[in-house]
Write a structure and sequence with these properties.
The protein is mostly helical and about 525 residues long. It folds into 5 domains: about 10-30 and about 150-310, Orthogonal Bundle (Lysozyme), CATH 1.10.530.10; about 50-150, no CATH class; about 320-360 and about 365-390, no CATH class; about 400-450, LysM domain (Membrane-bound Lytic Murein Transglycosylase D, Chain A), CATH 3.10.350.10; about 475-520, Roll (Membrane-bound Lytic Murein Transglycosylase D, Chain A). About 45% of the residues lie in helices and about 10% in strands. The chain has a 3-stranded antiparallel sheet, with helices on one face. A hairpin with a 6-residue loop joins strand 1 (about 55-60) and strand 2. The relative contact order is 0.08.
């Protein structure tokens, strides 16, 4: 990583932003007194505790620390597997040790023979007046361990500057506070390839069902992994949460807990005060992660703003130096790679949304896809692309034989359209009597489409889809009203147009600046 003149300028801008945030330029993010302990706890997790330090604490009062296990010395000479096993054994034993002390204190709180350690732990709960305070603190839901993430958080800070300039522009255009661009520090440490064990993906950790509301998620392109497309989706999702819930603390917590859950919490307690909700709401799914999500966000904003004081004079990434080219046809990734003259590793880094089906050549890239290329390779790519023979550029997806697992809500006709084949072909290939006889989870063999492969396709066959679709384009409305969650690229795909063409036709200076309800003229 290097720090260019542009990166240094960006740091100056961040300092100005930080000063404004610190001075309270916006009251959007209140810090109730009841959350100060939680914020301090997460600040230490992010910036103080190493990944080889494990904190044993009270989940109900995160700042109530029982002990800190430190394996930094062992990490210098033990293998990763040996160290992991040691840490796991020690963590389990320490939790049981603390639980045993708490249970003893519940039985004999005033025992004159308590050890120094037992008296220390007793003093940690002296402000709790409940008669069963020690027994309650020993509950498995309360006695918790947390590993530090200082190293991972620092990597997230360094990576963040690769994307933040563009992300902040997107959030401004969606009327969302730019402080929220720091939320990926909590979700993924700005790792575009992050996956969770429950299926969330990308920098913003969208689940597939939520992701499909704002972007394309399928077996060719998963835009949850695209840092720019997913950022716009996150901005719109957060804005929807705010419009529904009325405060940014609730909107942020809803990003983790769901807008319906936060609406229910506010309704049951009769308040939108996040401090009260965190302390008093007892919803069955409102666990430790949801209860602490807003405090984690505030701690992440603080540490990111003052990262030098926590991590020293570290270098940060330069802004991503790439330009997006909208593909007007269905083309193979190999064709794009050859025209761009860029190695496949660089393409993968710039276009993380592309899935294995695209890299293997089994599926073509979709028409209207925004391919990101190094800026210095954009012009050579455009020149090469213009000179490609028609056989290399398809008006329909290229289909090859493969398999598809049926997802909820899919029909045989939607699957056929996705793979450029027909319902009848799918029925015949899979021995189906009826197009309605498919079920979620069923594995279908997908035949090649009835269209010849690009290399051998005749001129008449290539023209056929265009001639067939011409009357539809002619009769379709050429004014489009922007719907919530739509992007210019999606609209361009819908009408078979291009982003640049729509932008020029409507005098748009930036393809990112469209709003819900806006009327756009679509050029023919």
């Amino acid at each position: 990583m290097t720090r260019s003149k542009g990166a240094r300028l960006w740091l100056i801008i961040v300092v100005i932003f930080a000063a404004g945030t610190a001075s309270g330029e916006s009251g959007a993010f209140p810090r109730p007194q009841s959350l100060h302990e939680n914020i301090n706890f997460w600040t230490n997790v992010f910036a103080t505790y190493s990944r080889h330090q494990i904190v044993v604490h009270d989940a109900a009062r995160p700042g109530r620390l029982y002990s800190i296990l430190d394996f930094r010395r062992e990490a210098t000479f033990m293998s990763d597997n040996e160290l992991w096993r040691l840490e796991q054994r020690a963590e389990t034993a320490e939790i049981e040790r603390i639980r045993s002390i708490l249970e003893k204190l519940q039985r004999h709180p005033d025992d004159a023979q308590l050890s120094i350690e037992e008296m220390r732990i007793r003093s940690l709960l002296q402000d709790d007046p409940h008669p069963d305070r020690f027994r309650r603190a020993a509950d498995p839901k309360r006695l918790r361990s947390q590993r530090g993430i200082r190293e991972r958080f620092l990597e997230g800070v360094q990576r963040s500057y690769r994307y933040l300039p563009r992300m902040e522009r997107i959030f401004r255009s969606e009327n969302v506070p730019i402080e929220l661009t720091r939320l990926p520090l909590v979700e993924s440490s700005f790792n575009t390839f992050a996956y969770s064990k429950v299926g969330a993906a990308g920098m913003w950790q969208f689940m597939p069902s939520t992701g499909r509301l704002f972007m394309r998620v399928d077996d060719v392109v998963d835009e949850r992994l695209d840092p720019i497309v997913a950022t716009r989706g996150a901005a719109r999702f957060l804005r929807q949460n705010y419009d529904r819930l009325g405060t940014w603390p609730l909107a942020i917590t809803a990003y983790n807990h769901g807008p319906g859950g936060m609406a229910r919490a506010a309704r049951e307690l009769g308040t939108k005060d996040i401090g009260v909700i965190v302390q008093r709401y007892e919803g069955p799914a409102f666990g430790f992660a949801s209860r602490n999500f807003y405090a984690e966000f505030l701690a992440a904003v603080d540490v990111h703003r003052d990262y030098r004081s926590h991590f020293g004079d570290v270098e940060v990434d330069d802004e991503m130096d790439a330009e997006e080219v909208i593909l007007p046809h269905h083309v193979s990734l190999g064709t794009v790679q050859r025209c761009a003259g860029v190695d496949m590793g660089s393409l993968k880094e710039l276009n993380p949304a592309l899935r294995p089906a695209a890299y293997s050549g089994r599926r073509s890239l979709p028409s209207g896809y925004g391919m990101r290329l190094p800026k210095h390779r954009t012009r050579p790519f455009l020149d090469c692309y213009a000179s490609l023979p028609p056989a290399a550029k398809q008006t329909r997806p290229q289909a090859t034989a493969g398999y598809h697992t049926v997802r909820r809500g899919e029909t045989l006709s939607t699957i056929a359209r996705r793979y450029g084949t027909t319902t009848r072909n799918l029925q015949r290939t899979n021995g189906l009597r009826s197009g309605n006889m498919i079920r979620v989870g069923q594995r279908l063999k997908v035949p090649g489409s009835g269209t010849a492969a690009p290399a051998v396709q005749t001129a008449s066959a290539r023209r056929a889809p265009q001639q067939k679709s011409a009357p539809q384009q002619k009769s379709a409305s050429r004014v489009h009203r922007v719907r919530r969650g739509q992007t210019l690229a999606q609209i361009a795909r819908q009408y078979g147009s291009s982003v640049d063409g729509i932008r020029r036709a409507n005098g748009l200076r930036d393809a990112d600046h469209i709003r819900t309800g806006q009327a756009l003229r679509i050029p023919r």
